[in-house]
Specification:
mainly alpha; Serine Threonine Protein Phosphatase 5, Tetratricopeptide repeat; 17 helices
């Protein structure tokens, strides 16, 4: 059973620059000029002005942090990482910088480092539903399902209306074998997707507590630049939501399959394919269900399509060979099996034998 645990996507970089007082930054100051260029959308000029500001004042942590964010959006990950490291050297208690470095480390595929930075951000009271959601994903990926569930629960407390979090928590609950709770989360998300195609759910209303990075009203506002700690709830048609929806259909289909509701499972796998036709797993799982119903020709078509999408996936090759065997085409089936046995005879022979035994028991004569 292929569970889809990591369902959320990293939010886009949000650059929020509160107004600065002219007393702090005169018009001829390069830092103030950088903010002006940034608000005008002139990224390159803003970076150049920030570089000038840093030369003028090498201890300006805010300048490093802003330049880090701009370099990140420009694709300069090494430069952005160097800047955020300098920010933390100057201001080691800045939780916002730890959050931004976590994203940069994720981009560099350093998941353990990203997890450590998210821990550091939260320890410094830089909190938001987006941070808890992201840490929950990383914990789930590392096998810490209970820790992941705790983080996703906390994320929902901060923003109870983000449908994506329901999908992510449902995946973790399914992995923990809490199917009823998982199904509730999946149904919430999919009902939102199917019945409200244009409606954008509301964010949680602000509380009286100051959000991360804010200051007292009578003091100059500090800079809040980088990855947003609070997520903006999406609309069902938003592009970044569609892979989430596709995966949730797969997970709900797996629950229906375990409950013996084959038609409902096939329906969900089909819906997943309609949302994301490049995902191999709904084809794989639908093929399994079709095998059980005795529709081997349709099952073969599904698994063949999955192999076109991922030709080196061993599990798909096993299933392709199994279906061919059931159809009596043992010659072509052996081509699939030999391909795997040449790579690892012990592992794949066991997998092939298990699948053949399981399928022959459930496929109608």
């Amino acid at each position: 059973m292929k569970l889809i645990l990591l369902l959320l996507v990293i939010s886009a970089v949000a650059l929020v620059i509160p107004a600065m007082s002219s007393a702090q930054n005169p018009d001829d100051d390069p830092f103030n000029r950088a903010l002006t260029e940034l608000k005008a959308g002139n990224t390159d000029k803003a970076i150049a002005a920030l570089t000038e500001a840093i030369k003028k004042n090498p201890d300006n942590a805010d300048a490093y942090l802003i330049r880090s964010s701009l370099r990140m959006t420009s694709g300069d990950t090494p430069g952005a990482l160097a800047d955020v490291n300098k920010t933390l050297q100057l201001k080691p208690g800045m939780g916002q910088a730890y959050h931004e470095r976590a994203i940069l480390r994720l981009i560099a595929r350093d998941r353990s480092g990203a997890l450590q930075d998210l821990d550091a951000a939260l320890a410094r009271d830089y909190k938001g539903d987006g941070i808890y959601s992201l840490r929950g994903q990383l914990r789930a990926e590392s096998g810490d399902l209970k820790g992941a569930l705790a983080d996703l629960d906390e994320s929902m407390k901060l923003n109870p209306n983000n449908p994506q979090t329901y999908g992510s928590r449902g995946g973790v609950l399914l992995a923990l074998n809490e199917r009823d709770r998982a199904l509730n989360d999946f149904n919430f998300l999919l009902n939102w997707y199917e019945t409200e195609p244009t409606k954008r759910v509301e964010n949680k209303k602000p509380t009286t507590e100051k959000p991360p990075g804010t200051a007292d009203a009578n003091k100059p506002a500090p800079f809040n630049v980088g990855i947003a700690a609070q997520t903006v709830n999406p609309a069902p048609g938003d592009k970044e939501v569609l892979p989430v929806i596709a995966n949730v259909y797969i997970n709900r289909g797996l629950i229906y399959s375990a409950q013996g509701k084959s038609d409902a499972a096939i329906s969900d796998f089909t819906k997943s394919i309609r949302v994301d036709a490049k995902n191999v797993w709904p084809f794989y799982h639908r093929a399994n269900e079709l095998e059980g119903k005795g529709d081997l020709a349709a099952a073969l078509a599904d698994i063949s399509r999955a192999i076109q999408l991922d030709p080196l996936n061993g599990n798909l090759r096993v299933e392709h060979g199994v279906i061919l065997t059931l159809l009596g085409n043992t010659k072509d089936a052996q081509v699939d099996f030999n391909m795997l046995l040449q790579a690892d005879r012990v592992t794949w022979q066991k997998r092939i034998d298990e699948r053949l035994a399981a399928v022959k028991m459930k496929v109608p004569k």
